[in-house]
Structure formats: structure tokens, C-alpha cells
UniProtKB/TrEMBL annotation:
This is DNA/RNA non-specific endonuclease domain-containing protein. Gene3D superfamilies: Extracellular Endonuclease, subunit A. It comes from Anguilla anguilla. GO terms for molecular function: hydrolase activity; metal ion binding; nucleic acid binding. Residues 1-20 form the signal peptide. Keywords: Signal. Residues 60-256 form the DNA/RNA non-specific endonuclease/pyrophosphatase/phosphodiesterase domain.
Amino acid sequence: MQVLAALCFLVLAHLPPLRGEVVGSFQDVPECLDFFYKGWVPEWGAANPNAARLCQRFNNRYHFATLYDTLHRIAVYSAYLFQTSNNDPTRNDWCIEPQLVDRSWNAGMEEEKDLITEHKGVYFGERQALEEDYINSNYDRGHLNPKQHQSGDSRQATFTLTNVVPQTPNLNQKAWNDYETYLQKNLKTCSQAYVLVGAIPSANNWIIKNNVQRVNIPDYIWNAYCCLDNNGQPTHSGGVGKHGSHSSTLLRCLTL
């Protein structure tokens, strides 16, 4: 059992190095640490000067944690606890992070259209992606923490642009969606499951708007999870990696 626990740490931590509320450290908010296995936060990406740590807050509650790359304007990863979905309806209304614009603003995610009303004339996209970046881009807003792995308010909380990366429709709606569905069935057998989902940015592949590189199109998307039993002991762990643009590439299962 100690060996399996160690493997959970390895799966959730030793992934390839990476080229809500904004916090200096996830450790600053105890509730935010609840989304990491045994409160352990991966060290990779921590030294990136463009990394912002978001305790994703919606309706005055934390729902998951995201390490966000403000230079590439994509999430490095989102960390969450799997919840058996209750299939509550969600609105296709996208939020952004107010504190990535001004640290004195509201600590909870807000819909972009509401911020426009509250802060007329302010540009919100210097350090994060906006809805306009994805419009007519030929890329989907691909969730990292997917709504079907959540319930209640946590489902709606996944609709923030700090929780997505550009994915081709074929990848987002087929291969990756198939894997999320497979994982949903698998994780239902766990008493508790911790999941990390992230992206590795490309060297020079971007959504471009008005001749400006706006949102990086990642080379790879990856997933890692750890399943626990009723005693809080790990039973199995695993993950996959998927090339971000070549949708024909096979998902490679790394189950331990």
C-alpha cells in the first residue's frame, strides 16, 4: 500500500516539465489545498514568473485550483476532486478572473459581460484569454476540469476561461470527450479521487487576433488521477497524454 501511495505522488507530480482568486501560494488558502492529494502541490511550473495561482471561487465557495500561465493565456493545470455528476443544467456563459486584471477586484470569477458593465473602458485581456479570442478561431474552449466530473455549483464553475485551452473540435468533442467519459465511469468506483489535467504549450502555435498572438495552442494535453478507498488509501492511479493538434494520435494509457 505504501508503494501505491508513492505511485499516486509520482503520477500527480512527475509529469513532463512545463515551459478564482489569485493567491501567492496555494498553501495560503487551506480550502484550495483540498484539491491536491494529501495537500501536495506539484513544484514544476512554480518558478515560472508568468504563473498565477487561482483558487477558483464561484458563489462564495472554492471549487478547484488552477495554475494559469498569463503569458500563453492558457491553464498549466487544473486540480480537482472528482464528483459524481448530477447532470444539472449549465449555462454556456463564460467567466474570467477579475483579479488577473486588478488584484483589488472581486475574488470570485465573474462573467465577462458583467465586468464590462462594472468597469467600462477597461481592457481585461492583458493577462488572460477572452471570449473574443475563441470566436471564429476554429478552436473549441476545451475544459481541463470538465463539467461532467462535477455536480451542483461546481459544474457551472468549470465555465471559466482560466480552466480551458484551445482544442480542435475533433479532439474536444470526440477523442478527449471519450476519455473523460471513460474516466468518469472509472472514478465512480473510488471513494475519493484526485485529478490533475493540464497542457504543455507549443513553441509557436497561437490563436492570432488582429495580428497579435493571443492564446497559445498547446502541443500536449495530459491527465493524471489517484483513486482512494473508504480508508483514504490509494487503490489505483493512472493518466494519459494526448497530442493537442493531431487528433488521430492514440491516447496512451499510463495506468499503474
